[in-house]
């Protein structure tokens, strides 16, 4: 990390010089540029997004911008059907905070050499970087957490039943019954799963009161096959 004259902090990835992009590097395919920058991002500890591109009159890519996922402006519809090609990962906008990072890589097509040249590269980020090995660690720890909880709560979930699911916009509304050991329905709760912000709110208010996920919301998570419990429901 170093401080710029303006007093803002800049984090520069520490990576092997041979994987660090350089202005003036040439690539024969724009996909190779993407692979290179993605690999660099993996090692450096940031995610890349494909920003704008310009096509030339022959239908080839003329310029291509790659940015850090924490780059500034909210995305326009850059992932409309025209833009999505095989190699492009879709954004999961719930998991990213955009804070105006300026790190980027830009290439343009040089006709004379029929290749793509890196003509602009900003190395520094305005946020801390999370290297992939550290990311793996946090991810695996969380998954472990999730498995533990899952086993523990799977049993409990047997006592809950999904009676009804209603889809309202981005929300899935579940009616969940709470049964006792003799399978008698003791109560019915409403769990609202907001797909967009991955929230699960149960009318029993158990989470709000105790900070522990209730069986009803958990039942819905199992039902909707979430890959992991959203972070906000995992206590430190
Ligand atoms: Zn960044
Ligand atoms: Zn509940």
Automatic annotation (TrEMBL):
It comes from the Eukaryota. The keyword ATP-binding does not apply. GO terms for molecular function: zinc ion binding. Keywords: Metal-binding, Zinc, Zinc-finger. The keyword NADP does not apply. Residues 189-225 form the SWIM-type domain. It holds the Pfam family FAR1. InterPro entries: FAR1_DNA_bnd_dom (IPR004330), Znf_SWIM (IPR007527). This is SWIM-type domain-containing protein. It comes from Cynara cardunculus var. scolymus.
